[in-house]
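Worked example

This section walks through a single chain of length 244. The input is the sequence exactly as stored; nothing has been trimmed or padded.
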Amino acid sequence: MTGKKPQISFGEMERAGLSEKIANRLLTLIREKQLRPGDRLPPERELALMMKVSRPSLREALRALQLMNIIENRQGSGNYVTSLEPSRLVEHLDIVFALDDSTYHDLFQARRILETGIAETAALHITDDEVALMEKSVERAGELIGDPDAFLEADMELHTMIVNAARNRILPAFMQTINKISILSRRRTGEDIEVRRRTVKHHREIVAALKERDPQKAGRAMMRHLGHVEKKMKDITAPGKKRR
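Given that input, the structure is written out below as tokens.
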């Protein structure tokens, strides 16, 4: 390691599923912030001895973490923990949020800022055909309440329709990033069937406000929806709650 740091106990590994266990141990050290962005791992030979594993098993685990953009190999220098920037880890968002649940607060703040304004703008530009498609989307979501994965797709579909109805070429690019980052939070809150039921109710209210071409009402309905989901997310991530 660079600099003077407390000795890290990398732990000894059992043989069954060894590479996966090695990777999980390193992820745990990252979550516990014993390993931080930019830290250099011990050389492979030394790390294998510390964990009492074979070098091939260690290399397999490190390759997996490299594919996840959690570990990077610098030629001639060794293996390092990456910057762990959310944009680099977008395909493995469980790691981003495992590092710090407060990230969810930033996510919902961003969604409130963007999506409330988007709903207000969409109310000024939406067409009758778009309203009809949104109404069908909400009804389809109601029929999918018992299927969390299918419901998630329907949820994302409606929010995308609202963005498109705002008639702004820049907003979809922002929302594409937000949607990628919000998939994990949507999955976690969507595990609760009551949240899914409430979401359908809120979506109906949003679409009704859009149909009335009422920007303030649409913005309030979107804010109410996001506020409810954020409250559920806070309940899930409250101290003492176990991750699933």
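What to look for: The first helix runs from residue 18 to 31.
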